[in-house]
Amino acid sequence: MPxxxxxxxxxxxxxxxxxxxxxxxELVPLDAVTYxxxxxxxxxxxxxxxMIIHLRAAFPDxxxxxxxxxxxxxxxxxxxxxxxxHKGSFFGNVPTGRSVAxxxxxxxxxxxxxISENWxxxxxxxxxxxxxxxxPPRGKx
Length: 141
Prior knowledge:
Structural class: alpha+beta
Shape: globular
Helix content: 25-40%
Order of helices and strands: HHEHEEEEH
Number of helices: 4
CATH architecture: Roll
Largest sheet: 5 strands, mixed
Radius of gyration: 15 Å
Number of domains: 1
CATH topology: Nuclear Transport Factor 2, Chain: A
Number of strands: 5
Mean pLDDT: 93
């Protein structure tokens, strides 16, 4: 049975970095709950696939790296960084050619060696600010 840490590394390396969506069928059961606040995608494996497809279309050189992780018996919390260059449409915004680096957080629960529930958060405001779509906070340039 895979370790909890190996599940998240497979999710980031194979699904996000390589665009291998089939790996999600192995890692995440059909009835697993995936919370994707702010993305407007279904809260399930299909929504996770849609989000990854959308991100990879907008940032074809997308890479995600694990910065830190805390593992429990059947839980894992991961701080990660998403990097890429905006070369495709992103929620209707034309490509800017800008490079981005934003942090994300994933919290997963496992059952039977698979991801049974996960929360996936990405610093969307920071991403939109780096793309120039949303202005930076007042007093910052």
